[in-house]
Amino acid sequence: MHEMSIAMAVVGQVEEAARAGAASAVRRVELQVGELAGVVPDSLAFCFELACAGTVLEGAELVTRSVTASARCADCAGAWAVGMPPDLCCPVCGRATEVELLTGRELRILNVTWEDAPAADSCREPISEEA
Amino acid sequence: MCRVVDLQQAVLAKNDGAARALRAELASRGTTVVNLLSSPGSGKTALLERELSLARERGVPVAALTADLATENDARRLARSGVPVKQVLTDGLCHLEAPMLGRHLDGWLPEGTRLLFVENVGNLVCPASYDLGEALRVVLASVTEGEDKPLKYPTAFGLAQLVVVTKTDIAEAVEFDEAAFRANVQRVNPGVEVLLTSVRADQGVGLLLDRALAVGSGTRAHAPVMAHQRHEGDHHGHGHGHEHGPGHTHDHDHDHDHDDHDHHGQDHGPGHGRPDPAVAQTR
Lengths: 131, 283
Hints:
A: alpha+beta, 3-stranded mixed beta sheet, B: Rossmann fold, 8 helices, 9 strands
């Protein structure tokens, strides 16, 4: 169950970005999780909620975009969904010497939705809330 | 005002960065790290104890770090080999992470260590996601665990650079189907070598040491298909071996686990650590 470690890494990275971007609250985090990333999305969602507590991400929604694992064989120029458990040998030639994984190992933060902190000495016109 | 910010960051970027730095630092000190993963009870410690003893007999400077949730039992067993051993207690954490390993090595890893064996927490799920800066990742499975183990834990077996079957002395009694096991390994990790070992029957003992020494001497370790996902705009592979020239750097994010580069020529300052054959233990 390393989803807690993963959740804490996500929260840590978003916290850093939010601090740098002077965000006051993070509302939503969109994550890309490949089939072969070794992460269980439900477990991650549970841990994410706990990891967000007491941070600028408190109450933030986690949106997980799963990515199907696929590979291609340079010899046969074919691509296939490797499935789960994955079959990484080419279904056409049966070999794997020229097989390349195209997708499936993703574990990325795609984007974050946050609220900007009101600027301290802004010269701009005040911007109305548009959450 | 609410706004959407494109972060595009690999979640494990920090661990992967720490692993790359550790790999480079240890390479500059002449140390090769071997990361051992398996289920609890697969015989990691028994095999490792034999390999460490063998290394000592052959005069190869090796060390071992073993991670468990609790107890120092494994370190005591490994220390019987007479090589420097350190027990890390993870206090419940199911895996090791690269920065954690780096901290434990700091001030402990004896100078001149050629091979450092890291016995990861017994678990085939979580440790698979964390690069520890190893040059060789080994996954072990005992014959009692079933031929379909590689299919049940595809990430662990899919990222292995060497697969070791243990306890082959009881293979017949438990009706271990070697051909089926090999086929399942090849399905998730085509081309990876599978070694058969039995500490009790003295089968295959020393092979792990040989393979680790070979990688330490520059032999390219197996590059699993799963470890090298194509990146957009990526026109070259990321091998486990040393295929990049000195100074080759990547400043973009990598979201795959294994990303081994050649770091020769990088100076990471004077080494630290002194030989201490006694069992060290740290939380």
